[in-house]
Amino acid sequence: MAIRGSEHRTSHAHHGVARDRSWFCDDYRPISSSIFGSPVICIGTVLLPVKVSPNAENREHATVKLRNVLHTPKAICNIIGAPICDDYDVVLGSFRNPANAGTITLPNGTAVGFFTLKSRFQLRLSVPPVGPHVGPSPFEPGTNYIIRAEWPSSERQKWLPSPCTPGPMAAPDRPSAEERKWLNMHYGNEYKFLAAHRLRIRDEEERHEGLQVMRALMQHHTADTVGGLGHPSERLASPERQWMKENYGNEYKFLVLHGLEITRTKTAY
């Protein structure tokens, strides 16, 4: 079953919900609202690093952008919500294959992500180091849940920006000196980083989205030390290192672009 935004223009549309502040980007702003009896304290954009395909041999990753997600700390779980259909085509209902129970594609047909099905549909996130570290499931086995995220149209009109009212022109978002250093070290430059995440440097919206992804990755990788940390016998030979430098820039970029994690030091506490 294909789902598109126009099919969800009801007075109480199911909305995107996130429980933790860490999911949100820089446009996070406070509001005072509620959704199904739970307080909503802020609203903002969420970027989700996801696997593109359930095929184990396909190590591609992409980013799903969710706009105007509600920060609802008391929600039982994170909810994608109907607004995703304004930007993507979503198909659900493949109950015969729980490992691939639905797809997310761009309007041009490009695959972006997919859903798995256990007791409910779940978006397949990328695992670290590409994706975030997530906690255990909030759901108890054998327990039935009613998951609702209906945000009344009166509240949406109150808190969502009007498309007919343009805001002030903001200065273009650009990486800081520290961020440029990180980009050069791990990807070569900003252009290559954006290309690796299927984003275009000449599109300001996509460039800004890419910088938000980069900042999230920098936070996840702050404690990581990369390059040449394995046992001496596991290190790359000179010809292999040269090939990797010519084709990927360095070992780190090769592993990240293929969904793998470079060896890290272990710290005892």
Query: Helix/strand-derived class?
Result: alpha+beta
Number of helical regions: 6
For the largest sheet, list the strands in their spatial order: 1-6-7-8-9
| Largest sheet descriptor | 5 strands, antiparallel
Determine the mean pLDDT.
77
User: Can you count the beta strands?
Assistant: 9
Strand content: 15-25%
Shape: globular
Unreliable stretches, pLDDT < 50, 5 or more residues? Answer: 4-12, 223-235, 261-269
What's the N-to-C terminus distance? 50 Å
Rg of Cα set: 20 Å
Helical fraction equals 10-25%
Order of helices and strands, N to C? EEEEEEEEEHHHHHH
Walkthrough of the structure:
The protein is an alpha+beta fold. Strand 7 and strand 8 (111-117) form a beta hairpin. It is globular and about 60 Å long. The protein has helices at 153-159, 177-186, 190-196, 204-220, 238-247, 251-257, and strands at 2-3, 17-18, 29-35, 38-51, 61-71, 89-92, 102-105, 111-117, 121-123. The longest helix has 17 residues, at 204-220. The protein is built from six helices and nine strands. The strands form two sheets. A five-stranded antiparallel beta sheet has the order 1-6-7-8-9, with no helix packed on it.
